[in-house]
Amino acid sequence: MAEKLVAVKGMNDIAPPQSAHWEWLEDTLRALMARYGYRNLRTPIVEPTALFVRGLGEVTDIVEKEMYSFEDKLNGEHLTLRPENTAGVVRAALESNMLYEGPKRLYYMGPMFRHERPQRGRYRQFHQFGAEALGFAGPDVDAELIVLASDLWAQLGLTGIELEINSLGQPAERLAHRQALIAYLEAHADQLDEDARRRLHSNPLRILDTKNPAMQALVNAAPRLMDHLGAESLAHFERLKALLDAHGIAYRVNPRLVRGMDYYNLSVFEFVTTQLGSQGTVCAGGRYDGLFEQIGGKPTPAVGWALGMERILELLKEQGRLPDAPVPDAYAVVPDAADLPRVMPLLRALRAAGARVQMHAGGPDGMGSMKSQFKKADASGARWALIFGADELAQGHVALKPLRGERDAAPSQAAMPLSDAQAIAARVRAH
User: Fold this and answer.
1) 210 labelled ligand-binding
2) Fewest beta carbons less than 10 Å away: which of 77, 211, 334, 415?
3) CA–CA separation, 222 vs 146, rounded Å?
């Protein structure tokens, strides 16, 4: 016997009934994006490795440790399975000259890949949904994206999600803060852990986001980026806060919120929860006005966010907000396989009329007993059984037998003409 093959660790199948929850969430997101005027963009899963090295930063955790990169055997190109999609969106916008006719509001969804230790809500293949607004410079669109995400939580019925915001200012302001931060940390080098010492001169801002409890007092007393911001950066942040206040959206200014990619500037934000353990961030983003220039374009303002689909579904499950998986309206019970040429066209007509109908499928020895068919009809979750017995078909009828709530109100089965597919479909679809 051949060795049994299984999926790569951290890359999971999504099968029924869980896949129905994914479809429901995806449909909810698409509808919300349409109401805000965001349109779908689909980019390749594989991109040039240089896109992420230049876009995310060479010393980020993603580029240093987590990317699935390889050399194409045919032409020697260095390629990477996308670990995130903002850089890909910007690459696509530049390559197609997408902003020639003006700014664009876009959204995407799909799998991303990072080589990290699988844990709750965090996988090597994971799925992101993202919203990106390209070509907009003002804080009004920053606020719009935050309001959009807040509307999503309300529509999904999720509670306990809190918003944290911060400003990273502009590059020159970050440089002044960086120099002050390095000097402060060097003066307390004996308190730094191994990871902080490694990042001290390459990416000291990320040290502020440490989860090491022993370093919290040190980090809390570190120089604050907010104290190095100029008038324009502060004004942008104040206008953002005023717009959030106008919407009644609660937030907390978190001066340690820095995000994990180098391309961010000005507004950054995260939606967090305490209900998913250490993986508490469910949606995060910010402004990245310098990313276009980093990957070969002209300076272009842009802002966006991404959410983890697995984490949202996990939170929906935690809060009991997942809908029931869809079930058939009716299950067709067909005692004699010889009647299928007459039955199957009617079932097709019922589906065309909007009814969800599942047909019992037989085997080489026939369709099976009525008892076994009714057992499968009940297990399907269908509300009605459509019985195509010899007597019913001889009279040009199908018998409708209630399997769920109608059972007590109408215990006996009713007959309906085979010729009236619309009426049958309306009956089985009615609640």
Assistant:
1) no
2) 211
3) 28
